[in-house]
Amino acid sequence: MMNAGCQTAPFSTGIATQSAPGKLILCGEHAVVYGQPAIALPLADIRAYARLTVGVPGSGLRLYAPDLGREWIVDASSDDPLGELALTTLHALNAPHIDLVLTLSATIPIASGMGSGAAIATAMVRALADWAGQSLSPAEVSALVYASEQRYHGTPSGIDNTVIAYEQPLWFVRRTTAEQQIVADIEPITIAQPFTLVIGDTGIRSATRLPVGDVRRRWQANPDYYEDLFMQVGELTRAVRVALATGDLVGLGPLLNANQALLEVIGVSSPELERLVVAARSAGATGAKLSGAGWGGVMLALTDSADSQSAVTTALRKAGAVRVLETTVAATSGREA
Ligand code: PMV
What we know:
The protein is 39% helix and 26% strand. By secondary structure, the protein is of the alpha+beta class. The protein folds into 2 domains: 173 residues, 2-Layer Sandwich (Ribosomal Protein S5, domain 2); 135 residues, 2-Layer Sandwich (Alpha-Beta Plaits). Strands 1, 2, 3, 4, 5, 6 and 7 form a 7-stranded mixed beta sheet that branches. Strand 6 and strand 7 form a beta hairpin. Helix 2 packs across helix 3. The termini are close together. The site of (3R)-3-hydroxy-3-methyl-5-(phosphonooxy)pentanoic acid (PMV) has 16 residues, from helix 4.
């Protein structure tokens, strides 16, 4: 299992730099909130960074996000998720809250379904642990970030913080125990054949809690109808796992298309997402779907050759994507990294 790579002496006076990957949900978003499985992938090349330096005496704990043009001081009365998480982490590390500057940045598009918030939070927790000379396990990092996401995002399944902290393709199931505790069962998945995804960004920012809250209201009004849709998504996710484990990339595309169809019925797609999905399929993608909470953000397209990657990239740009990224998902054994 990976750890946060913390090597420095306790409370070093120097600097600590850590990072964390973005993520994509390949299959199962939304249904995962209701106990169905989902499959998530870390994006090793698209990352968030946290750089910790020791500030001048008396300057306090400061967060600096140059990409957003924001700098702010954190204290006990702070009502911002990152500031609170920094304080909680320092407390968990039994580390003094002294004069620190945390500079946060990311190459992950914000509020686009690629886990930018959880990745920045994870990088920050890792940098604080590094500075404190402590090693936090992926489970510990994930739990700290989840507590913060829960406070600000309502009912997150925990899939984002988990795949980002573990940094490996995961099977994720959220479960409520007999004691009413929410736990996640996670398993590394086997990927027999590498494959390439082209990611198209609609440029429409979407706060996860809005579509998640909307689905919850509609599920509460019509539970049987939505439970049935979520079960169908769960069946697809199980089939996607088998396709990945057996290297059946031909079978994978139609499963992703079927997931998109269900997400449309669940009500989390959008005209902009569908324009990109249709354009990708017309240009030769073997499957395409939205990824993440929906109503905006990104979609992903499965491609089977370098030619189709470039045709899909061109088609997505023409169809209005503000950003097109490409990622190759490596083969994995399904064992813990
Ligand atoms: O934050 P996003 O856009 O990656 O969406 C998270 C996935 C959902 O299933 C929609 C919500 C959740 O908490 O699992």
